[in-house]
Amino acid sequence: QLHSDQDKGDGSLKYILSGDGAGDLFIINENTGDIQATRRLDREEKPVYILRAQAVNRRTGRPVEPESEFIIKIHDINDNEPMFTKDVYNASIPEMSDVGTFVVQVTATDADDPTYGNSAKVVYSILQGQPYFSVESETGVIKTALLNMDRENREQYQVVIQAKDMGGQMGGLSGTTTVNITLTDVNDNPPRFPQSTYQFRAPESMPPDSPVGRIKANDADVDENAEIEYSITEGDGYDMFGITTDKDTQEGIITVKKALDFENKNLYILKVEATNTHVDPRFLYLGPFKDSATVRIQVEDVDEPPVFSRPAYIMEVKEGVPINSVIGTVTAQDPDAAKNPVKYSVDRHTDMDRVFNINSGNGSIFTSKPLDRETLLWHNITVIAAEINNPKQSSRVPVFIKVLDVNDNAPEFAMFYETFVCENAKAEQLIQTLSAVDKDDSYSGHQFSFSLAPEAASSSNFTLQDNRDNTAGIFTRKTRYNRHEMSTYFLPVVISDNDYPIQSSTETVTIRVCACDHRGKMLSCNAEALIHPTGLSTGALIAILLCIIILLVTVVLFAALRRQRKKEPLIISKEDIRDNIVSYNDEGGGEEDTQAFDIGTLRNPEAIDDNKLRRDIVPETLFMPRRTATARDNTDVRDFINQRLKENDTDPTAPPYDSLATYAYEGNGSVAESLSSLESVTTDGDQDYDYLSDWGPRFKKLADMYGAMDSDKDS
């Protein structure tokens, strides 16, 4: 309540309130000065209010004393329960952790005044989660309370924590939160096979690296703690089988490493071991983290193709052996217990010429055609062995047949020899050295002997000397030779080898007699030139053909240019650029023919029709040529020509190839005057044409025509 000393109780004063919440939260009785709150006050919303009060004259409104300020403080009561910072907490710890291992810390706050009583003093306690976990009452730290908690037994725990104010005393307010605790895995469990023995079957036809079966050891752990490595530790199939780990399923895959053979061994016993790859040393006291099992693999019999005794066969045969000679034998057997009979055949794709054949019963290979080592040294064929009862069961083997050499080829010259001898040659002069080759093979090297044929040994003009090094020299026997008497000599030479049987051949050397200089250089021969006939090469033929084509193209182009030039304007000569004489070969129709040509234009250039177009070229423009004033009759011909030449040179409408200009002006003042009788039509006087009779027979017709006209006039 507010009261002023000036208030006499007569109602002349009134009280006014201003400040925080005045008129809304706080109101004042203007007559009595009582201050009241309009609603419940919350300290947590606003703990202090500052108000100002004043007493004023009700009639004048003037203050009767200075304004007073006062503070209202809200005293706290325990009206707020503790609130956790999270509704739900999530935490995890490794399994098998020691007692007292820190898990997580929870925190709760109280909005009440911590300085006033115990309203804001919070104490933590566990409502759910014992005996596994505990919480510190002052800090809210949650710890493990039980030893060796195993994830494999229980993985998830839900703990409820309570926070209570008033120091946990009776009447205090409280709040709760939930803590979800997960036990993470550690490698505390070794792998274990669910059974001690496994049985598998594998057909003997199974190729290497094929899977036989799968085994799996169980591990209660997860993720990397459950990773297992499988291995074969012992057994009679240690080198026949292998095992790998499927990383996705952690299974052991048993595979075949080598080909199986039921007839050789039909049962294998293996010992397989499963071991953890990530071992935790803290739990080694629990025992070895591995386990083993026995695997029995039964090999099943299948119908297999025949098997050859060798992977490949190499045989040798001499060339020229008789047909049906046996070269060698291949052998194949059925590996199955039934021992089915086998038949043999030659794959004809490898022996297209059918040079060899095989006995289908015993596998002996024999020739069916003659063999020649010089034609083909090696023959590579394939032999097929198939079961008679089941031909689909077959196998193949390569057979390499080498043809051995037999001395069946005679030696021959290494090249074609054609030599010459000079007319002035001296006796015992070397003119040619011979060498030989042999298609046969010689293990110790070829040794050839050379000699003249018996029919030429005594009568020949030349001698032959064997050099004992597989070469021989031809020497002259006499001093001089005459090419006019004998231009060519043919010298037969016998070549023999030293193999068995001895082979020999007779080769002929052509020797020409030629004229030589003093140094022995050949100049000329009477007979054919000492050259070998040679043919044109493909390149030379192509070059000749190209030259012919180029020549034909040149002729065609030249003819086309000639034809094009004929279509051009008549004036093509450099000397006749502006002046030409055009012959029309028309003598006209006489004096009465007034349509052929107006001869008056020769005398009067002004009479030229300006509308006439040029006839030597196709008109290309509609502009009419510009003309200057024409020369008068008294103008010299040279001036006239120069004037027209200037006109044509400066005419912009003339095409650049203009080459024909008409200068139809015969000049003026000729001593002989005009010789044309056609001009008589423009004169009024009579003329005498008797002189035409004196001009000869060519002017007889004119003389008759004009003489007759004079006669008519006289009559």
Give the radius of gyration.
69 Å
Q: How many alpha or pi helices?
A: 5
Shape label: flat
Poorly predicted spans:
527-535, 570-579, 605-634
Largest sheet: 5 strands, mixed
Q: What amount of the residues lies in strands?
A: 25-35%
- The number of distinct β-strands equals 39
Through-space gap between termini:
181 Å
Question: What number is the mean pLDDT?
Answer: 81
Structural class: mainly beta
Helix fraction by DSSP (H/I, runs of at least 4): under 10%
Function: Cadherins are calcium-dependent cell adhesion proteins. They preferentially interact with themselves in a homophilic manner in connecting cells; cadherins may thus contribute to the sorting of heterogeneous cell types.
Domain Cadherin: 4-84, 85-193, 194-308, 309-413, 413-523
Keywords: Calcium, Cell adhesion, Cell membrane, Cleavage on pair of basic residues, Glycoprotein, Membrane, Metal-binding, Repeat, Signal, Transmembrane, Transmembrane helix
Pfam family, one: CADH_Y-type_LIR
Task: Give a description of the structure.
It is found in: Cell membrane. The chain crosses the membrane at residues 540-561. Residues 4-84, 85-193, 194-308, 309-413, 413-523 form the Cadherin domain. Cadherins are calcium-dependent cell adhesion proteins. They preferentially interact with themselves in a homophilic manner in connecting cells; cadherins may thus contribute to the sorting of heterogeneous cell types. The protein is mostly beta strands. 9% of the residues lie in helices and 33% in strands. The strands form twelve sheets. Strands 32, 34, 37, 38 and 39 form a five-stranded mixed beta sheet that branches. The chain has a four-stranded mixed beta sheet with strand order 7-14-13-10, with no helix packed on it. Strands 15-21-20-17 form a four-stranded mixed beta sheet, with no helix packed on it. Strand 11 and strand 12 (141-144) form a beta hairpin. The protein is flat and about 185 Å long. The termini are far apart.
